Amino acid sequence: MYDYLIVGAGFAGSVLAERLASEGNKVLILDKRNHIGGNAFDYYDEAGILIHKYGPHIFHTNSKEVYEYLSRFTQWRHYQHRVLASLDGQYFPIPINLTTINHMYGMTLDSSQLEAFFASKAEAKNILETSEDVVVNSIGRELYEKFFKNYTRKQWDLDPSELNASVTARVPTRTNKDDRYFTDTYQSMPLHGYTKMFETMLNHPNITIMLGTDYRDAAPEIQFKKMVFTGPVDEYFNYRFGKLPYRSIEFRFETHDQETFQQTGTINYPNDYSFTRITEFKYLSGQKHHKTSIVYEFPTADGDPYYPIPRPDNMALYRQYEELAKSQRNVYFVGRLATYKYYNMDQVVAQALATYKKIKKEASENTRVLESANGSLGRN
Protein backbone atom coordinates (compact mmCIF):
# COMPACT_ATOMS: atom_id res chain seq x y z
CA MET A 1 0.00 0.00 0.00
CA TYR A 2 1.41 3.36 -1.08
CA ASP A 3 0.28 6.61 0.50
CA TYR A 4 0.69 8.39 -2.85
CA LEU A 5 0.82 7.28 -6.46
CA ILE A 6 2.45 10.04 -8.51
CA VAL A 7 2.01 9.98 -12.28
CA GLY A 8 4.94 11.71 -13.98
CA ALA A 9 8.58 12.17 -12.89
CA GLY A 10 9.07 15.73 -14.11
CA PHE A 11 9.30 18.81 -11.89
CA ALA A 12 5.75 18.63 -10.52
CA GLY A 13 5.82 14.94 -9.70
CA SER A 14 9.39 14.85 -8.40
CA VAL A 15 9.01 17.87 -6.10
CA LEU A 16 5.84 16.43 -4.59
CA ALA A 17 7.42 12.98 -4.27
CA GLU A 18 10.38 14.42 -2.37
CA ARG A 19 8.23 16.58 -0.08
CA LEU A 20 5.74 13.82 0.71
CA ALA A 21 8.45 11.21 1.23
CA SER A 22 10.28 13.54 3.61
CA GLU A 23 7.17 13.46 5.83
CA GLY A 24 7.21 9.67 6.05
CA ASN A 25 4.80 8.89 3.22
CA LYS A 26 5.41 5.89 0.97
CA VAL A 27 5.46 7.19 -2.61
CA LEU A 28 5.42 5.42 -5.97
CA ILE A 29 6.27 7.41 -9.12
CA LEU A 30 5.25 6.09 -12.53
CA ASP A 31 6.46 7.55 -15.80
CA LYS A 32 5.81 6.20 -19.28
CA ARG A 33 9.20 7.45 -20.44
CA ASN A 34 12.36 5.52 -19.63
CA HIS A 35 13.91 8.36 -17.62
CA ILE A 36 13.17 10.81 -14.82
CA GLY A 37 13.23 14.60 -15.19
CA GLY A 38 10.37 15.05 -17.64
CA ASN A 39 11.14 17.52 -20.41
CA ALA A 40 14.14 18.84 -18.45
CA PHE A 41 15.98 15.52 -18.90
CA ASP A 42 19.57 15.97 -20.07
CA TYR A 43 22.31 13.51 -20.97
CA TYR A 44 25.72 13.24 -22.63
CA ASP A 45 25.50 12.60 -26.37
CA GLU A 46 27.87 10.41 -28.38
CA ALA A 47 30.43 13.21 -28.53
CA GLY A 48 30.33 13.57 -24.73
CA ILE A 49 28.48 16.88 -24.74
CA LEU A 50 25.67 17.53 -22.24
CA ILE A 51 22.48 18.18 -24.22
CA HIS A 52 18.79 18.61 -23.40
CA LYS A 53 16.71 15.89 -25.06
CA TYR A 54 13.57 18.03 -25.24
CA GLY A 55 15.09 21.37 -26.17
CA PRO A 56 16.89 24.01 -24.09
CA HIS A 57 15.77 24.47 -20.49
CA ILE A 58 17.19 27.60 -18.88
CA PHE A 59 16.40 28.10 -15.22
CA HIS A 60 15.37 31.53 -13.95
CA THR A 61 13.11 32.67 -11.13
CA ASN A 62 12.29 35.57 -8.86
CA SER A 63 11.15 33.16 -6.14
CA LYS A 64 13.62 32.80 -3.30
CA GLU A 65 11.59 29.85 -2.00
CA VAL A 66 11.85 27.96 -5.30
CA TYR A 67 15.56 28.69 -5.71
CA GLU A 68 16.46 27.70 -2.16
CA TYR A 69 14.37 24.55 -2.38
CA LEU A 70 16.11 23.35 -5.56
CA SER A 71 19.47 24.34 -4.07
CA ARG A 72 19.10 21.40 -1.68
CA PHE A 73 19.64 19.07 -4.63
CA THR A 74 22.18 20.84 -6.84
CA GLN A 75 24.99 23.32 -6.94
CA TRP A 76 24.53 26.05 -9.52
CA ARG A 77 26.46 27.53 -12.40
CA HIS A 78 25.73 31.22 -12.81
CA TYR A 79 24.39 31.74 -16.32
CA GLN A 80 22.50 34.59 -17.96
CA HIS A 81 20.96 33.63 -21.28
CA ARG A 82 21.36 35.87 -24.30
CA VAL A 83 19.46 35.57 -27.56
CA LEU A 84 19.96 37.13 -30.98
CA ALA A 85 17.47 37.40 -33.84
CA SER A 86 18.68 36.81 -37.38
CA LEU A 87 17.15 39.48 -39.62
CA ASP A 88 18.20 40.47 -43.13
CA GLY A 89 21.64 38.93 -42.71
CA GLN A 90 22.35 40.70 -39.43
CA TYR A 91 21.98 39.77 -35.75
CA PHE A 92 20.02 41.86 -33.27
CA PRO A 93 19.64 41.40 -29.50
CA ILE A 94 16.23 40.36 -28.22
CA PRO A 95 14.20 41.27 -26.29
CA ILE A 96 14.26 44.49 -28.31
CA ASN A 97 16.33 47.05 -26.42
CA LEU A 98 18.32 50.24 -26.96
CA THR A 99 21.16 48.40 -28.75
CA THR A 100 18.68 46.64 -31.05
CA ILE A 101 17.08 49.87 -32.25
CA ASN A 102 20.30 51.86 -32.59
CA HIS A 103 21.90 49.03 -34.59
CA MET A 104 18.85 48.49 -36.79
CA TYR A 105 18.26 52.14 -37.68
CA GLY A 106 21.81 53.49 -37.42
CA MET A 107 20.88 55.86 -34.62
CA THR A 108 22.42 56.88 -31.29
CA LEU A 109 19.33 57.23 -29.13
CA ASP A 110 19.46 57.23 -25.34
CA SER A 111 16.81 55.61 -23.13
CA SER A 112 14.48 58.63 -22.96
CA GLN A 113 14.73 59.15 -26.71
CA LEU A 114 13.95 55.48 -27.29
CA GLU A 115 10.75 55.82 -25.25
CA ALA A 116 9.71 58.67 -27.54
CA PHE A 117 10.68 56.59 -30.59
CA PHE A 118 8.48 53.70 -29.49
CA ALA A 119 5.64 56.11 -28.71
CA SER A 120 5.87 57.53 -32.22
CA LYS A 121 5.62 54.05 -33.72
CA ALA A 122 2.95 52.64 -31.42
CA GLU A 123 -0.66 52.11 -32.48
CA ALA A 124 -2.73 52.70 -29.35
CA LYS A 125 -5.16 49.91 -28.47
CA ASN A 126 -7.83 50.49 -25.84
CA ILE A 127 -8.09 46.77 -25.04
CA LEU A 128 -5.16 44.35 -25.37
CA GLU A 129 -6.93 41.13 -26.33
CA THR A 130 -4.47 39.44 -28.68
CA SER A 131 -0.74 38.94 -29.02
CA GLU A 132 -0.73 41.35 -31.96
CA ASP A 133 -2.41 44.02 -29.83
CA VAL A 134 0.28 43.77 -27.14
CA VAL A 135 3.20 44.37 -29.51
CA VAL A 136 1.63 46.92 -31.85
CA ASN A 137 0.38 48.95 -28.88
CA SER A 138 3.90 49.02 -27.44
CA ILE A 139 6.33 49.39 -30.35
CA GLY A 140 4.30 49.66 -33.55
CA ARG A 141 3.65 47.54 -36.61
CA GLU A 142 7.06 47.68 -38.32
CA LEU A 143 8.95 46.08 -35.44
CA TYR A 144 6.04 43.72 -34.82
CA GLU A 145 6.30 42.41 -38.38
CA LYS A 146 10.10 42.13 -38.27
CA PHE A 147 10.44 40.33 -34.93
CA PHE A 148 7.13 38.83 -33.86
CA LYS A 149 4.60 38.13 -36.58
CA ASN A 150 6.26 35.34 -38.54
CA TYR A 151 8.04 33.80 -35.55
CA THR A 152 4.70 33.49 -33.76
CA ARG A 153 3.09 32.00 -36.87
CA LYS A 154 5.81 29.37 -37.07
CA GLN A 155 5.65 28.58 -33.37
CA TRP A 156 1.86 28.34 -33.05
CA ASP A 157 0.60 27.89 -36.64
CA LEU A 158 -1.67 30.83 -35.87
CA ASP A 159 -1.49 34.54 -36.57
CA PRO A 160 -0.72 36.59 -33.42
CA SER A 161 -4.15 38.19 -33.86
CA GLU A 162 -5.62 34.75 -33.07
CA LEU A 163 -3.63 34.19 -29.86
CA ASN A 164 -4.13 35.36 -26.30
CA ALA A 165 -2.16 38.46 -25.31
CA SER A 166 -0.08 36.39 -22.87
CA VAL A 167 2.05 34.84 -25.65
CA THR A 168 3.95 37.92 -26.84
CA ALA A 169 3.68 39.54 -23.41
CA ARG A 170 6.27 36.95 -22.30
CA VAL A 171 8.91 38.83 -24.33
CA PRO A 172 9.12 42.42 -23.03
CA THR A 173 10.60 45.46 -24.74
CA ARG A 174 13.34 47.43 -22.96
CA THR A 175 14.55 51.00 -23.22
CA ASN A 176 18.01 50.29 -21.77
CA LYS A 177 20.95 48.20 -23.03
CA ASP A 178 20.14 45.12 -20.96
CA ASP A 179 20.54 42.29 -23.48
CA ARG A 180 19.82 39.41 -21.09
CA TYR A 181 16.84 37.34 -22.17
CA PHE A 182 15.64 37.13 -18.56
CA THR A 183 15.93 39.69 -15.77
CA ASP A 184 14.99 37.40 -12.86
CA THR A 185 16.83 37.63 -9.55
CA TYR A 186 18.05 34.04 -9.78
CA GLN A 187 19.51 32.85 -13.08
CA SER A 188 21.55 29.66 -12.99
CA MET A 189 21.94 26.20 -14.46
CA PRO A 190 22.29 23.03 -12.36
CA LEU A 191 26.04 22.55 -12.17
CA HIS A 192 25.97 18.88 -13.17
CA GLY A 193 22.75 18.99 -15.19
CA TYR A 194 19.06 18.59 -14.51
CA THR A 195 19.08 14.79 -14.46
CA LYS A 196 21.65 14.73 -11.64
CA MET A 197 19.48 17.20 -9.70
CA PHE A 198 16.42 14.95 -10.12
CA GLU A 199 18.41 11.87 -9.10
CA THR A 200 19.41 13.58 -5.85
CA MET A 201 15.86 14.81 -5.27
CA LEU A 202 14.36 11.35 -5.68
CA ASN A 203 17.05 9.47 -3.75
CA HIS A 204 14.89 8.65 -0.73
CA PRO A 205 14.02 5.29 0.88
CA ASN A 206 10.31 6.17 0.80
CA ILE A 207 10.31 6.72 -2.98
CA THR A 208 9.90 3.91 -5.51
CA ILE A 209 10.25 4.70 -9.23
CA MET A 210 8.79 2.69 -12.12
CA LEU A 211 9.83 3.90 -15.58
CA GLY A 212 8.50 2.84 -18.96
CA THR A 213 5.12 2.34 -17.30
CA ASP A 214 1.74 3.76 -18.35
CA TYR A 215 -0.31 4.54 -15.26
CA ARG A 216 -3.49 3.32 -16.96
CA ASP A 217 -1.99 -0.15 -17.23
CA ALA A 218 -0.36 -0.21 -13.80
CA ALA A 219 -2.79 1.68 -11.53
CA PRO A 220 -5.42 -1.09 -11.30
CA GLU A 221 -2.74 -3.41 -9.89
CA ILE A 222 -1.41 -0.90 -7.34
CA GLN A 223 -2.83 -0.12 -3.92
CA PHE A 224 -2.61 3.55 -3.03
CA LYS A 225 -4.51 6.08 -0.95
CA LYS A 226 -4.12 9.26 -3.03
CA MET A 227 -2.87 10.24 -6.46
CA VAL A 228 -0.89 13.17 -7.86
CA PHE A 229 -1.50 13.43 -11.60
CA THR A 230 0.86 15.53 -13.74
CA GLY A 231 -0.10 14.24 -17.19
CA PRO A 232 -2.62 15.73 -19.66
CA VAL A 233 -5.88 16.38 -17.83
CA ASP A 234 -7.97 15.47 -20.89
CA GLU A 235 -6.20 12.10 -21.07
CA TYR A 236 -7.07 11.40 -17.43
CA PHE A 237 -10.76 11.78 -18.27
CA ASN A 238 -10.47 9.77 -21.50
CA TYR A 239 -11.03 12.89 -23.63
CA ARG A 240 -14.64 13.15 -22.49
CA PHE A 241 -15.09 16.63 -23.96
CA GLY A 242 -12.54 16.25 -26.76
CA LYS A 243 -8.75 16.70 -26.94
CA LEU A 244 -7.10 19.85 -25.63
CA PRO A 245 -4.93 21.38 -28.40
CA TYR A 246 -1.15 21.55 -27.97
CA ARG A 247 1.83 22.52 -30.05
CA SER A 248 4.75 20.17 -30.20
CA ILE A 249 8.34 20.43 -31.47
CA GLU A 250 10.58 18.21 -33.56
CA PHE A 251 14.23 18.50 -32.54
CA ARG A 252 17.13 18.01 -34.92
CA PHE A 253 20.46 17.60 -33.15
CA GLU A 254 23.85 18.07 -34.77
CA THR A 255 27.39 17.80 -33.52
CA HIS A 256 30.06 19.88 -35.25
CA ASP A 257 33.81 19.38 -35.20
CA GLN A 258 34.52 22.91 -34.00
CA GLU A 259 34.58 24.61 -30.60
CA THR A 260 31.63 26.93 -31.23
CA PHE A 261 28.87 27.07 -33.82
CA GLN A 262 27.30 30.48 -33.16
CA GLN A 263 27.99 33.61 -31.16
CA THR A 264 25.50 33.11 -28.34
CA GLY A 265 23.37 30.45 -26.65
CA THR A 266 20.30 30.83 -28.87
CA ILE A 267 19.67 32.52 -32.21
CA ASN A 268 16.06 33.02 -33.32
CA TYR A 269 15.03 33.00 -36.97
CA PRO A 270 11.77 34.99 -37.11
CA ASN A 271 11.36 35.16 -40.88
CA ASP A 272 13.63 32.61 -42.54
CA TYR A 273 13.58 28.79 -42.58
CA SER A 274 11.02 26.42 -41.12
CA PHE A 275 12.78 26.18 -37.73
CA THR A 276 12.34 28.85 -35.07
CA ARG A 277 15.72 28.80 -33.36
CA ILE A 278 19.09 27.13 -32.90
CA THR A 279 20.55 26.57 -29.44
CA GLU A 280 24.16 25.63 -28.69
CA PHE A 281 24.34 23.66 -25.46
CA LYS A 282 27.90 24.45 -24.38
CA TYR A 283 26.88 28.05 -23.65
CA LEU A 284 24.29 26.73 -21.20
CA SER A 285 26.50 24.21 -19.43
CA GLY A 286 29.87 25.97 -19.65
CA GLN A 287 31.37 22.66 -20.77
CA LYS A 288 34.80 22.76 -22.38
CA HIS A 289 35.04 20.49 -25.43
CA HIS A 290 36.72 20.58 -28.84
CA LYS A 291 33.36 19.79 -30.47
CA THR A 292 29.95 21.38 -30.04
CA SER A 293 26.33 20.17 -30.22
CA ILE A 294 23.34 22.20 -31.33
CA VAL A 295 19.61 21.69 -31.75
CA TYR A 296 17.17 23.06 -34.33
CA GLU A 297 13.53 23.41 -33.28
CA PHE A 298 10.71 22.75 -35.76
CA PRO A 299 7.24 23.48 -34.34
CA THR A 300 4.61 20.92 -35.28
CA ALA A 301 1.01 20.00 -34.56
CA ASP A 302 1.87 16.35 -33.86
CA GLY A 303 4.03 14.83 -31.17
CA ASP A 304 4.42 15.14 -27.42
CA PRO A 305 2.24 17.88 -25.90
CA TYR A 306 4.54 20.80 -25.00
CA TYR A 307 2.70 24.09 -25.29
CA PRO A 308 -0.98 24.60 -24.40
CA ILE A 309 -2.42 26.86 -27.11
CA PRO A 310 -3.79 29.97 -25.38
CA ARG A 311 -7.03 30.74 -27.19
CA PRO A 312 -10.45 31.47 -25.66
CA ASP A 313 -12.12 28.36 -27.11
CA ASN A 314 -9.32 26.14 -25.77
CA MET A 315 -9.59 27.70 -22.32
CA ALA A 316 -13.35 27.13 -22.37
CA LEU A 317 -12.73 23.46 -23.13
CA TYR A 318 -10.18 23.24 -20.32
CA ARG A 319 -12.68 24.76 -17.86
CA GLN A 320 -14.91 21.74 -18.40
CA TYR A 321 -12.05 19.42 -17.48
CA GLU A 322 -11.11 21.66 -14.56
CA GLU A 323 -14.59 21.24 -13.09
CA LEU A 324 -14.27 17.47 -13.42
CA ALA A 325 -10.84 17.60 -11.78
CA LYS A 326 -12.25 19.52 -8.81
CA SER A 327 -14.82 16.77 -8.27
CA GLN A 328 -12.17 14.05 -7.92
CA ARG A 329 -11.56 12.93 -4.37
CA ASN A 330 -7.96 12.26 -3.36
CA VAL A 331 -6.53 13.25 -6.75
CA TYR A 332 -4.34 16.35 -7.19
CA PHE A 333 -3.73 17.77 -10.66
CA VAL A 334 -0.38 19.58 -10.87
CA GLY A 335 1.85 20.92 -13.65
CA ARG A 336 1.65 22.35 -17.14
CA LEU A 337 -0.27 19.46 -18.71
CA ALA A 338 -2.59 18.78 -15.78
CA THR A 339 -3.64 22.43 -15.48
CA TYR A 340 -3.27 23.41 -19.17
CA LYS A 341 -1.04 26.40 -18.43
CA TYR A 342 2.05 27.70 -20.19
CA TYR A 343 4.23 27.48 -17.08
CA ASN A 344 7.98 27.99 -16.79
CA MET A 345 9.94 25.46 -14.73
CA ASP A 346 10.01 27.63 -11.61
CA GLN A 347 6.26 28.15 -11.80
CA VAL A 348 5.72 24.38 -11.85
CA VAL A 349 7.99 24.01 -8.80
CA ALA A 350 6.07 26.78 -7.04
CA GLN A 351 2.76 25.11 -7.86
CA ALA A 352 4.04 21.77 -6.57
CA LEU A 353 5.27 23.33 -3.32
CA ALA A 354 1.91 25.08 -2.88
CA THR A 355 0.10 21.77 -3.50
CA TYR A 356 2.28 20.09 -0.88
CA LYS A 357 1.32 22.77 1.67
CA LYS A 358 -2.34 22.23 0.77
CA ILE A 359 -2.01 18.46 1.25
CA LYS A 360 -0.24 18.95 4.57
CA LYS A 361 -2.93 21.36 5.76
CA GLU A 362 -5.69 18.94 4.76
CA ALA A 363 -3.96 16.10 6.62
CA SER A 364 -3.60 18.26 9.73
CA GLU A 365 -7.27 19.24 9.62
CA ASN A 366 -8.33 15.62 9.17
CA THR A 367 -6.21 14.62 12.16
CA ARG A 368 -7.85 17.30 14.30
CA VAL A 369 -11.31 16.14 13.24
CA LEU A 370 -10.48 12.52 14.11
CA GLU A 371 -8.98 13.50 17.46
CA SER A 372 -12.03 15.61 18.25
CA ALA A 373 -14.36 12.75 17.30
CA ASN A 374 -12.38 10.26 19.40
CA GLY A 375 -12.41 12.66 22.30
CA SER A 376 -16.20 12.97 22.05
CA LEU A 377 -16.55 9.17 22.01
CA GLY A 378 -14.34 8.89 25.07
CA ARG A 379 -16.55 11.29 27.03
CA ASN A 380 -19.76 9.48 26.09
TrEMBL record:
SUPFAM superfamilies: FAD-linked reductases, C-terminal domain, Nucleotide-binding domain. Its cofactor is FAD. Residues 146-342 form the UDP-galactopyranose mutase C-terminal domain. InterPro entries: UDP-GALP_mutase, UDP-GalPyranose_mutase_C. Keywords: FAD, Flavoprotein, Isomerase. Belongs to the UDP-galactopyranose/dTDP-fucopyranose mutase family. This is UDP-galactopyranose mutase. It comes from Pedobacter ginsengiterrae. The gene is glf_1.
